[in-house]
Amino acid sequence: MKIRLKIFLILLIVSVLFIFSLQAKSKATSDYESIETLMQVITLLKEHHIYEPSVDTLVENALQGILDKLDLHTTYLKVSDFENFSSQTEGH
What we know:
Helix content: over 70%
Mean pLDDT: 79
Number of helices: 3
Strand content: under 5%
Number of domains: 2
Largest sheet: none
Distance between the termini: 76 Å
Radius of gyration: 24 Å
Order of helices and strands: HHH
Oligomer: single chain
Low-confidence stretches: none
């Protein structure tokens, strides 16, 4: 009887770990699918938009939109804007 209980517990633990593993893979796959969608939009814009925007501009605008919409206290700063902000707030 004790052997059956041990085998049952081992199978239960393995099953639970397997289910958690599948859920983690599913979440990662979902994240990559979302990123893939963003990459497809960028590709379509590069190929078909009348103004042929640069990838750098598209990514920068996407980052700005993501961070600006996140909450009221988060914003995106370009490198030059960040350096300017840092030099003004250092207190020298």
